[in-house]
Write a structure and sequence with these properties.
Chain B: One of its GO terms (cellular component) is periplasmic space. Chain B: This is Tol-Pal system protein TolB. Chain B: Pfam families: PD40, TolB_N. Chain B: It comes from Maribrevibacterium harenarium. Chain B: Belongs to the TolB family. The structure holds two protein chains of two kinds. Chain A is mainly alpha-helical. Chain A is built from six helices and three strands. Chain A has two domains: 190 residues, no CATH class; 97 residues, Fusion Protein Consisting Of Minor Coat Protein, Glycine Rich Linker, Tola, And A His Tag, Chain: A, Domain 2 (2-Layer Sandwich), CATH 3.30.1150. Chain A has a three-stranded antiparallel sheet with strand order 2-1-3. In chain A, strand 1 and strand 2 form a beta hairpin. Chain B has four helices and 31 strands. The radius of gyration of chain B is 26 Å and the shape is globular. Classes of the chains: A mainly alpha, B mainly beta. At the A-B interface, helix 4, helix 5, helix 6 and strand 3 of A face helix 1 and strand 1 of B.
């Protein structure tokens, strides 16, 4: 098409050069802009803008050339038609002049011939002049149009470039914005995550502390309950020991109120009486012996085997029994 | 206030029995089981092929049962029958709830000679009580050996000297009610082996022991007049000490064995006199228009308690031997007669009439508190065992006089095997030296 364009019209090359120049400016601009942007934007971004510009430009230019060729053809046809019309008018004029010259033929043969030639030459010149003028005017018009077109084209290109630039800038701005927004979002997300993590950590800490406090309270309550339970246990087992020993204690007939014997019983953890020791004697050997017998007869406080070992060790590993009768007749 | 403080306060509140928190636990036992001491008397193995005259273990078992201190494990319940300490499986006896186990053997050592060996075991401690002891006796004395063992066990387990080897005097009236035969008899404390000391067609009354148990005194009528006799048991040698005009009655041996307190009415109405056995010197102790009778010495010999109706109806009075001052001792009951003091002087046993019934009563000399011990009919003539634990008395059962025993705490009562005829006026011997 270019070849055709160049063959048909002598302005093809300059236009093309102009267009090429513009293109190269645009390209360089884009490239520069692209490279400049690369400082901001990631370098991996493909140079879509350049390719798009070239294609668009070419398409637009092609359309323009076709239009220009069609216009030139129409102008040429118009010129030919006008020439033929003038030629036809000329022939009619020449036929009338012939008739007049023939009428005056004699008189003015030379004159006429010279005038005719002069007229003819004048006509020719005029015709030439007019043609020239027309041609000039057409050329001027064409050049003006071309200029106008080129300007328009340039303006359009500039506009396009500007728009492209704007778009690019907009895109880049948008990208930057998006990037910024994304980064902001990320930052926000990060912040949110951190905040949430912090909140979670704090919540966990609070919960841990709450659990700790609860555990502590429970432990204290448990300890208190245990202390009470221990004392209840001690009391209940003591009552049990008292009851069993009382039941087993068969006092000798010579026992008297006020006699006192103190024994120390050593229990095994299974509740068995391991040993009995007389700590304080009553002065009546038989009275002492019966107290010892009573303990051995009881033999085992089975309930002791179910007592918590700690409680056992603290309270029942050794137990003192004071035999101090208050109910005797004597 | 935190939990710990509350806990501490609660702990102190509930401590109760625990006098110091987490210090030595002290449990005070202030009462015991009012129950008899369970003992198993395992039949004594006799190494002799021939059957023994007596079942020694059974005699011991009965002695212990009658004491009111023991309960015995029936033989049929015994899981094993060891005759030696080394064969005693304490678990068996624990199962039977026996606190003590008596095991023993009767060995024939020669013709009519036996050796009784016994060991007393404490089931609780699995230890022998006392030592392993052997008693050599003739066949006729196996009962004595059994009573001896009973005494030892009783003393070891009660702290009180046993009185199973003691004897009793009592009077029986047999045969025709209008003309009975009176017999003064001596028997083991359990009523076995009675022997007639004196037999008479006239009444025999008020037998009494000397404090060494070798002599007895009693009232026996001769020609319808009461006379006071003393007699040596071993020889049967009899001596008439008093045959004063009127009443001669109720002889009571002084603790030193030298004198008799007697009742004489030679000076008008019955009064208390003291008769020196050797010098026959007579000392009048009371002088009152009322009847004074039934004297009995205090254990220390400083006083004589007697029955007098000087207060309007018979009550017990105390006579000071030196000053001859008299003071009233009993105040409860419609009347009190025939008083005897326990060997420790603590209790006074009387026949007390309440609402027309005669029962044996026990008065605490410390606080004057009186307890009626018996519920039998027409109880009379209480006599106290030398260890002060039991009172033997005469009572009436089915129009017949019998002997019965009650413990001084009133908890144990039993009747002696019934002899022929009426049995009256028991006298419990002292310990034989």
């Amino acid at each position: 098409m270019k070849m055709k364009w160049r063959d048909r019209d002598g302005y093809g090359l300059p236009v093309m050069l102009a267009v090429g120049l513009h293109l190269s400016v645009v390209l360089v601009g884009v490239a520069v802009a692209a490279w400049d942007g690369s400082e901001v934007t990631p370098p991996k971004r493909p140079p879509i803008v350049n390719a798009t510009v070239i294609d668009v430009s070419q398409t637009i230019i092609g359309q323009r050339e076709a239009e220009q060729a069609a216009q030139a053809a129409a102008q040429a046809a118009e010129a030919a038609r006008k020439k033929q019309e003038q030629q036809r008018i000329e022939q009619q004029k020449r036929a009338a002049a012939e008739q007049k010259r023939q009428a005056e033929a004699e008189r003015k043969k030379q004159e006429t011939a010279r005038q005719q030639a002069e007229a003819k030459r004048q006509a020719e010149l005029e015709k030439q002049r007019q043609a020239e003028a027309q041609k000039r005017q057409a050329e001027q018009q064409r050049q003006a149009e071309q200029r106008k077109q080129a300007e328009a084209e340039a303006k359009k290109l500039a506009e396009q470039r500007r728009q492209a630039e704007q778009q690019r800038l907009a895109r880049e701005a948008k990208q930057r914005q998006e990037e910024a927004r994304r980064q902001e979002q990320e930052r926000q997300a990060q912040l949110e995550r951190e905040r949430q993590e912090q909140a979670a950590r704090e919540a966990a800490e609070q919960q841990r502390q709450a659990e700790e406090a609860l555990k502590r309270a429970v432990a204290e309550e448990e300890a208190r309950k245990q202390a009470v339970a221990e004392q209840q246990m001690v009391q209940s087992i003591s009552s049990l020991i008292n009851q069993r020993v009382t039941d087993a204690w068969i006092r000798p007939p010579n026992a008297r109120n006020g006699m006192k014997t103190k024994l120390r019983i050593y229990f095994l953890p299974n509740g068995e009486v391991n040993n009995v020791q007389v700590l304080e004697q009553s002065g009546n050997g038989l009275f002492d012996q019966r107290a010892v017998d009573a303990v051995y007869k009881v033999g085992r406080i089975e309930e002791l085997s179910e007592v918590d070992p700690y409680i056992f060790e603290r309270n029942f590993r050794q137990v003192d029994l004071l035999f101090n009768p208050q109910d005797l007749r004597n | 206030m935190n939990f710990r403080n509350i806990g501490l306060i609660l702990l102190l509140l509930v401590a109760g029995l625990v006098q110091r928190a987490h210090a030595q636990l002290v449990i005070e036992i202030t009462s015991g089981a009012d129950q008899l001491l369970p003992i198993a008397v395992v039949p004594f193995d006799d190494a002799t092929a021939q059957p023994l005259p007596v079942d020694v273990a059974e005699i011991i078992e009965n002695d212990l049962l009658r004491s009111g201190v023991f309960e015995t494990i029936p033989r049929r319940n015994m899981i094993s029958r060891p005759s030696d300490a080394k064969d005693v499986h304490f678990r068996d006896w624990r199962l039977l709830r026996a606190d003590y186990v008596l095991v023993g053997q009767v060995l024939k050592t020669a013709q009519d000679r036996y050796r009784v060996v016994y060991e007393l075991m404490n089931v609780a401690t699995e230890q022998r009580v006392g030592k392993k002891e052997g008693i050599d006796v003739a066949g006729a004395n196996l009962r004595d050996a059994a009573h001896y063992v009973s005494d030892k066990i009783y003393e070891q387990l009660t702290g009180i000297r046993g009185a199973f080897s003691t004897r009793i005097l009592y009077v029986t009236a047999e045969g025709d009610r209008l003309a009975p035969t009176f017999k003064l008899q001596v028997a083991d404390a359990d009523g076995h082996r009675p022997q007639v000391v004196v037999e008479s067609k006239e009444p025999i009354l008020s037998p009494s022991w000397s404090h060494d148990g070798k002599f007895i005194a009693y009232v026996m009528f001769r020609n319808r007049r009461p006379n006071i006799f003393i007699q040596e048991l071993a020889t049967g040698k009899q001596e008439r000490l008093a045959q004063f005009p009127g009443l001669n009655g109720a002889p009571a041996w002084s603790p030193d064995g030298k004198k008799l307190a007697v009742v004489l009415s030679k000076d008008d109405n019955p009064e208390i006199y003291v008769l020196d056995i050797v010098t026959k010197k007579l000392t009048r102790m009371t002088n009152h228009y009322a009847i004074d009778t039934e004297p009995s010495w205090e254990p220390d010999g400083k006083g004589i308690i007697f029955t007098s109706d000087r207060g309007g109806n018979p009550q017990i009075y105390r006579l000071d031997v030196d000053s001859k001052e008299v003071e009233r001792v009993t105040f409860e009951g419609e009347l009190n007669t025939r008083a005897r003091l326990t060997p420790d002087g603590r209790y006074l046993v009387t026949v007390q009439k309440n609402d027309g019934s005669y029962h044996i009563a026990l008065q605490d000399m410390r606080n004057g508190r009186v307890q009626v011990l018996t519920e039998t009919y027409l109880d009379e003539s209480p006599s106290i065992a030398p260890n002060g634990s039991m009172v033997m008395y005469a009572t009436t059962q089915g129009n017949k006089g019998i002997l019965a025993v009650v413990s001084v705490d009133g908890l144990v009562k039993y009747k002696l095997p019934s002899a022929d005829g009426d049995v009256r006026e028991p006298a419990w011997s002292p310990y034989f030296k």
